[in-house]
């Protein structure tokens, strides 16, 4: 499906400090029961990675805000890797446990409405692909 994947680099000068991959194909939410019937298309954030030397500076939050800004009318979802749950919770995303229980990764879903106005798009976030 052309145009179904979007790849982003967050640049500080010439240095890539974060990257993200959005999959715009429909997400099957079956493995995470309890997710309310989405009121809008759900798109999956397949990858979000901030360079470790840049953690804790708001780059992860700003990148997610920017992706939401680029896709109004959708809800972003992410399957959280180990250790990242606190990040999604700090962003106010809703957590859903995998139907196979402990040891399987939870799904996080962006809230219906942002709790604060979304950040203006950062000019240094460039899409590719
Ligand atoms: C998780 C990750 C993206 C966070 O990026 P970051 O730029 O450091 O995050 P931010 O500085 O924007 O933090 C936003 C909020 O999340 C919190 N937070 C960030 N990482 C956290 C963590 N691992 N555990 C708990 N809270 C965390 C921050 O304290 C901050 O809270 P606040 O706004 O209330 O002060 C980054 O650590 C990373 O790339 N990790 C490795 C890959 C990964 O886990 N990716 C997640 C994909 S599922």
Give a short summary of the structure.
By secondary structure, this protein is an alpha+beta fold. Helix content is 14%, strand content 32%. The protein has helices at 59-70, 85-90, and strands at 5-12, 15-23, 42-50, 75-79, 94-96, 107-109, 125-128.
Write a concise keyword list for the protein shown above.
129 residues; alpha+beta; Aminopeptidase; seven-stranded mixed beta sheet; 2 helices; 7 strands; globular; binds coenzyme A
Descriptive notes:
The protein is 14% helix and 32% strand. The protein is an alpha+beta fold. It contains two helices and seven strands. A hairpin with a 2-residue loop joins strand 1 and strand 2. The radius of gyration is 14 Å and the shape is globular. Coenzyme A is lined by residues 48-50, 55-61, 78, 80-81, 83-84, 86-87, 90. This is Acetyltransferase (GNAT) family protein. InterPro entries: Acyl_CoA_acyltransferase (IPR016181). Keywords: Transferase. One of its GO terms (molecular function) is transferase activity.
């Amino acid at each position: 499906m052309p145009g179904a994947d979007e790849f982003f680099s967050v640049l500080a000068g010439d240095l890539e400090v974060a990257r993200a991959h959005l999959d715009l194909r429909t997400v099957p939410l079956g493995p995470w029961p309890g997710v309310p019937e989405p009121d809008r298309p759900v798109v999956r954030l397949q990858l979000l990675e901030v360079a470790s030397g840049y953690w804790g500076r708001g780059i992860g939050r700003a990148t997610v805000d920017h992706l939401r800004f680029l896709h109004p009318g959708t809800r972003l979802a992410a399957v959280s890797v180990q250790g990242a749950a606190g990040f999604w919770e700090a962003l106010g995303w809703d957590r859903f446990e995998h139907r196979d229980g402990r040891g399987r990764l939870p799904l996080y879903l962006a809230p219906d409405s942002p709790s604060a106005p979304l950040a203006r798009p950062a000019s240094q976030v460039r899409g590719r692909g």
